[in-house]
Amino acid sequence: MSIVAIGCNHRSTPLSILERMTIAPDDIPKALADLGSADHLSEVVVLSTCNRVEIYAYAEKFHGGYQDIREFFGRHAGLAPEDVNDHLYALHDTEAIRHLFSVTAGLDSAVIGEHEILGQVRTAWERSAEHGTVGSTLGPLFRHAVETGKRARTDTAIGRGIASVSQAAVALATEQLGGLDGRTVLVLGAGEMAEGTVKSLAAAGTSDIFVANRTWDNAVALAEACGGTAVSLDAVGDALVAVDMLVTTTGAQQLILESGEIAGFLSRRHGRELVIVDVAVPRDVDPRAGELPGVTLLDMDDIGVFVEQQMASRTRVVGNVETIVGEEVDRYRSVTSAREVAPLIAQLRTRGNDIADIELTRFNGKLSELDASQREAVEAMARGIVNKLLHEPTIRLKDAAGHARGDRLADSLRDLFDLD
Question: 236, 264 in Cβ contact below 8 A?
């Protein structure tokens, strides 16, 4: 059995492919049911964010599990298996564990140290548990991963400064507009990303924030939280004529704004520049809108480039977090291996005691002439010899648990004593 992590992210996959691979929140239950019924997968967690789509699984065999997951991605994205294969990374066992811990620690995000990913990992784990696809292997693994993410942010400065996609988007837009003081912004969406965006906009001195969302009550709640104004979807066009910037954050699976629509709004702006920041995956705005005169269109690729430039000075912090991740991987492996060898040690001692019982029974006739105290002494001696012989192998196995040597010793004991 292997723990596997298979997926794609902002580094491995072009945005045009990543947005097709993304699994919408409403589609997660179906994805879990599909993967949970696969031939080679025993446990499954689906993690889908604006930067990554990853499937963590406990697979009977790595290659069989990889094939099941690759075929799922192909069906979901409508891509041929070979096209999917070009963009997937596949890790197993220790490297899969290390990758998950790095993800929760914020090392693998578009914005190094982002805080949203920790909650996203927890939510993915909880949703999988609700749908019965998490068991005794992935449950403890994800619990430890969340603990690792918390430790990374407590013990280091990884989460300080720009620490979210929404913060990075606002910082990039600020650079484009030369500041946000007195600027007006329309935010499409009212989810977690939108919430982070309006907070960053308010902190940057934005004059007026308008919020539009499919669910009116959510738009009103978010607008009130930032001192802004809710607008209906029907009024988005009028708002676009007036604002300096549009930020789109929805979870829609298709374009919200076509290039032609935006061109129509521009005719009423009388040449005023419009900055559009599309942080949605899949994208909300037609990429061709960036070719329109007076429009600057920024998406997750642009944010990624901006963040890399901003993060260049944080190499020391990254190194400290990588050390924490390494320590937590070792701790997890040690705890898990110790838990795994406990049944093996119990089987070994049972096998030794069974042999002692067989021999005592075989010599029962010769022992019948002994009185009770003498017979008890012989039985104690037989069991004492078994315990002495098994003591050293037991100690060595416990001490080596969690390391390659421990795995080799466990395999040897199984072979030598014919244990399960």
Answer: no
Cα–Cα distance for residue pair 6/336, rounded to 1 Å: 22
Q: How confident is the model at residue 312 (pLDDT cuts 50, 70, 90)?
A: low
- Take residue 365 and report the two structure tokens written for it: 């006739």
For residue 364, the surrounding DSSP H or E stretch is helix 364-367
Give catalytic residues, as residue numbers: 50
Residues 193, 156: one domain? Answer: no
- Structurally, the chain folds into a number of domains equal to 3
Strands (E), 80-218: 89-92, 184-188, 208-212
Nearest to 122 by CA among 105, 108, 143, 97: 143
Closest among 3, 219, 223 to 91, alpha carbons compared: 3
Claim to verify: residue 289 and residue 169 sit in the same structural domain:
yes
- pLDDT tens digits, 225-245: 888 999 998 888 889 999 999
Among 133, 160, 187, which residue terminates a domain? 160
Full domain range(s) for residue 214: 165-304
Supply the Cα-derived Rg of the chain in whole angstroms. Answer: 29
The verdict on 18 and 143 lying in the same domain is yes
User: What is the phi/psi pair of residue 108, to 5°?
Assistant: -110, 15
- Rounded to two decimals, what is the model's pTM? 0.69
State which amino acid sits at residue 83. Answer: D
Name the burial class of residue 360, with classes exposed (0-12), middle (13-18) and buried (19+) by CB atoms within 10 angstroms of its CB: middle
Give the angle 229-251-218 at the CA atoms, nearest 5°. 30
pLDDT one-digit tens code per residue, 139-179: 999 999 999 999 999 998 887 767 678 888 888 888 888 88
